[in-house]
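Notebook entry, structure prediction.
Reason for the run: the old model in the group folder had no record of what sequence produced it. Starting over properly, with the input documented here first.
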Amino acid sequence: MAHPNYITPEGAKRLATELDHLMTRERPRVVDEVATAAAQGDRSENAEYIYGKKRLREIDRRVRFLLQRLDAAVVVDSRERTGEVVFFGAWVEVEDEDGERAHWRIVGEDEADAPLGHISWRSPVGAALLKRRPGDTVIVRRPAGERELTVVSVAWTRHDAT
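New structure, fully documented this time:
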């Protein structure tokens, strides 16, 4: 891996929960469905069998991915962190050139989720915000053009970032 797989404790827990669900619930259920479909006879024209085998391959692929990501994960716990410099795990409030404000949390690649306000530290915005302080302005280059963002505040818990 070319760079560390940083992840928050919450992100690591989500990946581990997904892995557990796939291994203890989803995969055994699909294996049972495939076995039932196989018992019906001719597998070449058995849609349930063919779909079940495909679903098993998808589950196994996701399990391998999760195992690799969790094995390489570097859990970074920022709950005890203080200060106003943006680092991994921080909640950052920014204001763009139009006066629009946004709140983002800088997280690992495996836990980026725009609707939740979680952006990867490797994304153009996340990378531009790292090591910045309130009052700093950054230019983010993106396919839609440049965007100017000013850091308004930095917090280490969600309820602090207002």
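Summary: The beta strands are 5-7, 73-75, 91-96, 101-107, 118-120, 137-142, 145-155.
The old model has been moved to the deprecated folder.
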